[in-house]
Write a structure and sequence with these properties.
mainly alpha
């Protein structure tokens, strides 16, 4: 797994993908930090995180679209399959590399927090809750993108597919007002990223919300492993 992780990180840092992601992430987060915190003269960074919540849905597919799609396109997939590591290690190595790049992007919010501390210390619980919530959201999106990338050799299709699933799970609870079946409404609310993200924005650590994000991440990573195993057999 370590070798796969290092290989993917090297790929991010020697190609434009990683730098473009970081540049866009820094630029957008910097704009929201300036517009919602500095201009408003407030130490409340919740608005920064709430805007980033929607933005990362669009940015994370940049990191994951090539993870397995490029292997298939470059015909290096068979070499990967015959590597002396199991599929779980391959999947985890690629997933952790994408999550590491995402975390590097998120790290800029720590700089914003330190800037705020020069004036007044923000609510630490709220900041940590938002940071953890955004990290967990990124982990889920990286897992989804890893799975979709394993399904196709076309990076554009992988990116669009990841974006579509991410947006569906983000806005799924917005369809509940037009559905009269209570059970279906509860299921849709239960699958909503936004619904499970809310407590984090208030600085609350709800075990059910934490379990939701971890479980969805594990599910898509498991699906990726199973799909690769079927491809090797076929």
């Amino acid at each position: 797994m370590t070798a796969i992780y290092k290989r993917e990180m090297r790929s991010y840092l020697t190609s434009p993908v990683g730098y473009v992601f970081l540049a866009v992430f820094f630029a957008i987060s910097g704009y929201y930090f300036f517009a919602t915190s500095l201009v408003s003269n407030t130490t409340d960074m919740s608005y920064v995180f709430s805007n980033l919540f929607s933005i990362v849905i669009f940015l994370v597919p940049m990191l994951t679209m090539r993870l397995f799609s490029e292997e298939r396109k470059q015909k290096t997939e068979q070499a990967l399959f015959t590597a002396p590591v199991g599929f779980p290690s391959i999947v985890m190595g690629k997933f952790l590399a994408s999550l590491s790049m995402y975390t590097l992007g998120m790290g800029i919010t720590l700089a914003y927090f330190l800037v705020m501390c020069l004036f007044q210390v923000p609510d630490l619980a709220v900041f940590c809750g938002n940071f953890l919530g955004l990290f967990l959201l990124g982990a889920v999106l990286c897992a989804i993108g890893t799975y979709i990338s394993s399904l196709t050799e076309n990076q554009v299709i992988a990116a669009v597919g990841s974006l579509a699933i991410g947006m569906l799970l983000l806005f799924i609870n917005s369809f509940t007002p037009v559905i009269s079946i209570t059970l279906v409404m509860e299921i849709m609310d239960g699958l909503s990223f936004y619904q499970h993200y809310l407590d984090f924005t208030r600085g609350l650590l709800n075990l059910s919300d934490l379990t939701f994000f971890v479980s969805i991440t594990a599910l898509f990573l498991f699906l990726t492993v199973r799909h690769l195993e079927r491809r090797r057999v076929s």
